[in-house]
Amino acid sequence: MESFEKVHGVVAPLDLPNVDTDQIIPKQFLKRIERTGFGRFLFYDWRFLEGDTLDPEFELNEERYHGAGILVTRANFGCGSSREHAPWALMDYGFRCIIAPSFADIFFNNCFKNGLLPVRLSEEQVEVIFQRVRETPGFQMTVDLRTQQIQAEGGMSFGFQVDPFRRRCLLNGWDDIGLTLRHEDLISQFESRSAPPLIPTSA
Amino acid sequence: MKPQTLFEKIWRAHLVREEPGQPSTLYIDRHLVHEVTSPQAFEGLRLAERKVRRPDLTFATMDHNIPTTNRGLPIRDPIAARQVRTLEDNCREFGIELFDLDSPFQGIVHVIGPELGLTLPGLTLVCGDSHTSTHGAFGALAFGIGTSEVEHVLATQCLLQDKPRTLLIRVEGQRPYGVEAKDIILSIIGRIGTSGGAGSVIEYAGRTIRDLTMEERMTVCNMSIEGGARAGMIAPDDTTFNYLRGRKYAPADFEKAVAGWKELAGDPGAEFDDTIHIEAAGLSPQVTWGTNPGQVTSIDSRIPHPAEFDDPNARKSAERALEYMALKPGTPLVDIAVDRVFIGSCTNSRLEDLRSAARFVEGRRVSSSVQAMVVPGSQQVKWQAEKEGLHQLFRESGFDWRESGCSMCLGMNPDILSPGQRCVSTSNRNFEGRQGKGGRTHLVSPIMAAAAAIEGHLVDVRQYELA
Ligand code: SF4
C-alpha cells in the first residue's frame, strides 16, 4: 500500500450529505477488472452531461478546483455499497484526503486500505472549511497525519483524531495481509481446535 | 462470567488474536465471492504469489452483471463478459467451487448461501458486498467487506476487525394487516436514519421477529446496512433449524449441530450499548419517497414538505430528493403513477416473496402503462416457483419472467430504467441513478409492488382482501 504522511493541496467542496458510493462511482464502471483508471468516472452522473461534456453547474467541475488533493463534504459520506472502486476512483482522480463530519463504516475502512485518509471533524469545523473554500479561490490546506493537524492559510488549524493502529499502518504503508501472516501460527492453531460445522459437509 | 449477547458469543469464539490498541484478528468460516468485487483481489494474490488459504470454505457465484434473459446466448457486453470469465478463471486457478451460469445453484449470492445451507448459525461469514448482513438472519455474524479485505480473507481466512457496538431492536406485538417484513425494516430505517446503526451490529428480537419465517427474517437483516449497521442478526430457533435441515451443505450430524446452536442465544441479562423498542401495532405499509432508504413514509400519507425537517442536512437532502424524484410536497403517495415495476433483489426475490406477489396478480392484468418484471433470486427459486406454476400467473397478468440475478436492483446488466422513468421496486436502494441514470425508485414490499403494477400507481394494499 502507498504510505501517507501528509498532503498539501487545493480543497474542493461537495456540499451534500449522504453521498453514496453509487454516486462516487456508478455501477456501469464496476465491470472493469483493474484497480486503476477509475478517476475518469468519479461522480460520473453529476460531473457529466450527455455525451461526456462536463456539467458546468457541478461545483467540482469549476476551474478553481482542478487538481484538488483534498475533498471536504458532509455527513455519512460513502454510504451504501461496499465497492472499493469508490476510494480507487477518488484517489485516481487526485484526492488523498476526504474531510467530513462522519463516514459510512465500510467506506471508511476501505479508504485506509488504499492510502486515502478520511478525516472526521465536527460539523462546525467542516462548515468553517466550506466557508473558506468558497471565499478564497485556490484555497489550500495541509493535512499532516504525523502531527494529526490540518493547517490552512490565514492561521486556521484543526487537530484531528485517527485510530493509532491505522495511523501507523498508513504512515508505514503496511499492508494488512503481511501483518496478519506474521501470526500464521495462531491461525493454524485456531483451525486445528475448531470443529465442524466449520467445514461444509458435502464439499 | 458476565452474560453475553449472541454477537459476543460468536465474536469470542472466532478470536485468533487480540492485542490492546489494535483491531482483533477474527477467523472467517465462510467466504462468498462474486464477479464484481473479486478480480482485483485475486490479482493481488497473484502479484504477491499467495494462495487461497481455505478454498474449501470459499464459494463463488456470478450475479451482479449477468443478463437475465436467455442463458443460452453469450453475454453481449464484452466488459461484463470479461469479468465473468475472470471469475471462472480465478476459481479454476485457486480451486474454489463456483456456481456458474450453467449451475442449477446459481443465484444472488445472498440468496444461495442460505438456500445451500452454507449459511449456518454461529458462523462468521463475509462477502465483498454490503448486503451480506442478510445471512445474520440465521444467527451468524455476517458482514460486507471491500476488495482489499476480500484479498485478506482469501490469503489468511481472517479479518482485522474493531469490535463493533451492539444495538438491540425489539419489535413486539401482532403485525397489522398488510404489513410485511419489508415494512418492518423500512420503518426501522425511517426511524433510526441511514446512519443510525453506524458502527453497530443490530440484534433483532421480540415476538414479532420470532414470528417471522426464515425468508422474512432475511429481508429484515438484509437492509440492516441501509440503517448504517455493519450487520444484523437474529438468534437461531426452531424456525432456523427447520429451514436448514436437509440443505445441501448442512452439517451431516444435524441434530448434534442443533444442540450446539441452541447455546448461541444471548444470555438473560446480557447488555447492549443501545436498545430500541417498536410496537408492531403501529406499523403500516411503507414507501420511500426520496433518494435514500431513510426517506420513507406510510403509504397512506403525503409527500412531506422539506420545511418539516428540523435538521438542516435532512432538509437539504429532502429538497434535493424531491427535485430528483419530480415530486411535489403534499401529494398523496397513492396518486403517484409508475412506469416500471421490479420484483427481485436479495431483499425480496425468494419463494415466499414471489408467492405473495403471484397470489395478488392472479386473475388481474398489469396496467397498460406499466412494464413489470419478476427476477427470481436464484435458479432454485425459479425452479420451485415454476413447479408451483407461479411463472404462469405472472406471465398471464403481463409480467416478464426472467433468469436469476441482481438485475435492475443495480442495473449493471441491461435491465435499467430510462431517464425520468419511475419504478416501484422490491430492492433495497433508491439512490439517484441506482436503477439507471435519471431513474426514480420507490422501495416497497413485494405485494405493494404487485398492486402498483396492476393499478398503474402506488396503492395501499390494505384496501384489498389479501389471502
Ligand atoms: S440484489 Fe442488489 S443489493 Fe443484492 S447483492 Fe445484488 S446488487 Fe447487491
Short description:
The complex is a heterodimer of chains A (203) and B (467). Chain A has 203 residues and is α/β, with parallel strands linked by helices.
Structure description:
The complex is a heterodimer of chains A (203) and B (467). By secondary structure, chain A is α/β, with parallel strands linked by helices. Chain A is 31% helix and 16% strand. Chain A has a 7-stranded mixed β-sheet. Chain A is globular, with a radius of gyration of 19 Å. The two termini of chain A are 35 Å apart. Helix content of chain B is 31%, strand content 17%. The N and C termini of chain B lie far apart (49 Å). The chains are: A alpha/beta (203), B alpha/beta (467). At the A-B interface, helix 4, helix 7 and helix 8 of A face helix 2, helix 3, helix 5 and helix 11 of B. The complex binds iron/sulfur cluster.
Fold topology:
The complex is a heterodimer of chains A (203) and B (467).
Chain A: E1 6-14, H1 21-24, H2 44-47, E2 70-73, H3 85-93, E3 97-100, H4 105-112, E4 117-120, H5 123-135, E5 140-144, E6 149-152, E7 157-159, H6 164-172, H7 176-181, H8 184-193
Parallel strand pairs in A: 1-2, 2-3, 3-4
Antiparallel strand pairs in A: 1-5, 5-6, 6-7
Chain B: H1 6-13, E1 15-17, E2 24-27, E3 30-33, H2 39-47, E4 58-61, H3 78-94, E5 97-99, H4 109-115, E6 124-127, E7 141-144, H5 147-156, E8 158-161, E9 165-172, H6 181-192, E10 200-205, H7 207-210, H8 214-222, E11 231-233, H9 238-244, H10 254-261, E12 274-279, E13 286-288, E14 296-298, H11 312-325, E15 340-343, H12 351-361, E16 371-374, H13 379-387, H14 390-397, E17 399-401, E18 422-425, E19 440-443, H15 446-455
Parallel strand pairs in B: 3-4, 3-6, 4-5, 6-7, 9-10, 9-12, 10-11, 15-16, 15-18, 16-17, 18-19
Antiparallel strand pairs in B: 1-2, 2-8, 13-14
Bound molecules: iron/sulfur cluster.
List keywords for this structure.
heterodimer; A: 7-stranded mixed β-sheet; 7 strands; globular; B: 467 residues; alpha/beta; 5-stranded parallel β-sheet; 19 strands; binds iron/sulfur cluster
